[in-house]
Every structure is written in structure tokens, then in C-alpha cells.
Amino acid sequence: MTISHETGGLSRRKRMPRPMTSFWFVLAAVLMSVLPAHGADRTIYLTFDEGPLSGTVNILDVLQASQVPATLFMVGMHAEASASNKMLVRRAKAMPLVTIGNHSYSHAYNHYRHFYGDTEGVVADMLKANAVLGLKPAVQARLPGRDVFRLPSMSKDDNSLGPAQAGREDPDYEFVAASGFYLYGWDHEWVHKGAGADRRPSGQRNRPPVRLRSFRQTRQTDPVDA
Fold first, then answer.
1. Whole-angstrom distance, CA of residue 157 vs CA of residue 173
2. Containing H/E element for 198?
3. Of 62, 89, 98, 174, which is least packed with CB atoms within 10 Å of its CB?
4. Exposure class string for 158-182: b at 16+ Cβ within 10 A, else e
5. Mean pLDDT in residue range 14-18
6. CA geometry: angle at 158 spanning 225 and 109, to 5°?
7. In 95-187, which ranges are continuous DSSP H helix?
8. CB–CB of 63/70 below 8 Å?
9. Model-level pTM?
10. Cβ contact 105:78 at 8 Å
11. pLDDT of residue 8
């Protein structure tokens, strides 16, 4: 997987220190795990969804201080909701190790069955987010609420959906991808059952895993581990 980088500068403005929150402890632990994981021939990709929201500033602060790459899949409706959110988008785009991805304009208004019943509507929503976020094809994207991959090297549907629900939605993910998007889900190989037994196909179990460490932001300070 390829993560593109954009150039930018660091602010010299002094800031008052923020109190340490549980978010800082969790994210610091994850960031500390990146180097040993890479040294063991494994790779962790950090991704954050739902922003820009109030917690995004903490994420950017930690990423900037740690100089660790990450992808922020942003929601267009959130990006244009306020001047401060627009400023967060600009700041993220100016950070050389941060990539901005498309997480839709509306986040399906959290009505996924209706949203995915209209493939052309999905594409229109994603293109609207491109315009708000200033993204040009081909765009790294994550669909709202659906763990779907459509990449040149792999294709995977959301296996958590039951047959009845999948049949009611029936979106054309190939059409969405062909509209200028690389679709990334949030769980590639690691599928667990019960206490955590490895359910990967036997041919994959001896391969160094690729982990997508995904966090879903809320309107609070701390993100939710997805």
C-alpha cells in the first residue's frame, strides 16, 4: 500500500501544555509499537476516521511531535461545519507525513441501508467530499460503515453483513472504485472469533501480517478504537 505525502511547515507559535488524556496514552502506546513491529518485518498503518472533529487537534499534535505517518479519512460535512474544522483540514494537509483520505461527504447520515441502495448516490456523495476536501483522483477513500477494499492488488467485501442485508443494499463497489477511488476498509487479514483465535486462511498465517490500526473519532476529545 502506498501513502502519499504533502509538504508543509511547522508552526513556531508557543502553546500552553494540554493535560494528558487517555487518548494521549493510547496513541502514544500505538506509536511506540510501530518501530519494533517494523523491525520484525511487520508494518502498521495508522488511520483515523470521522474527522475533522474536536479530537483531531490532539491527533495532529501527537503525529507531528512523533513524526509518524498516518492517514486521516475525513468527512466532508464535518470539514465545512466550522472555521476551526476548515483550519484543521488545512493544517493536516500541510503536514508532510499526513495523508488526507475521503470518508464520504455525509457519512450516509448514518442510514447505511438507504445509502448503499443507490450506487450513483454513493459516488455523488464521495465526489462532493472530494470537492470540499480539495482531493483529486485517484483518491484514497474509506466508505462509511462498510469494511470494503477495492484496490488494484486486492478486492474484499464486508463479511460482517448477513446475506439478507447484503442483498438489500447490493451496491456496485467496482463502479465506485472506477469513479476515481482506492477503497480501503479497516480490517484486512486479522479476523478473530471468540477469545481471538486466528481465522485467517492457513496460507496466510505464516506471512508477516499487515495491520490497519484504525481509530474512529467522536465529538469528544478521545477517539474510539474501531
1. 9
2. strand 197-198
3. 174
4. beebeeeeeeebebebeebbebbbb
5. 44
6. 65
7. 112-115, 119-133, 163-169, 173-178
8. yes
9. 0.72
10. no
11. 33
CB 50 within 8 A of CB 103: yes
* Cβ 104 vs Cβ 129: under 8 Å: yes
Looking at residue 197, its pLDDT comes to: 46
Q: Are 148 and 142 in contact (CB under 8 A)?
A: no
* Distance, CA of 225 to CA of 213 (rounded, Å): 8
pLDDT of residue 12: 34
Residue type, 52: P
Q: Count how many Cα atoms sit within 13 Å of the Cα of residue 224 in the half-sphere of its side chain.
A: 9
Distance CA 191, CA 196 (A): 8
**Residue whose C-alpha cell reads 461545519 in the numeric block:** 81
Q: Is the pLDDT of residue 176 over 90?
A: yes
- Taking residues 199-203, report their average pLDDT: 47
**Structure confidence at residue 31 (pLDDT):** 52
Residue 142, pLDDT above cutoff 70: yes
Q: What residues contact 34, with CB distance under 8 A and at least 6 apart?
A: 44, 46, 68
SS3 225: strand
With contact defined as beta carbons under 8 Å apart, do 176 and 183 qualify? yes
pLDDT of residue 210: 47
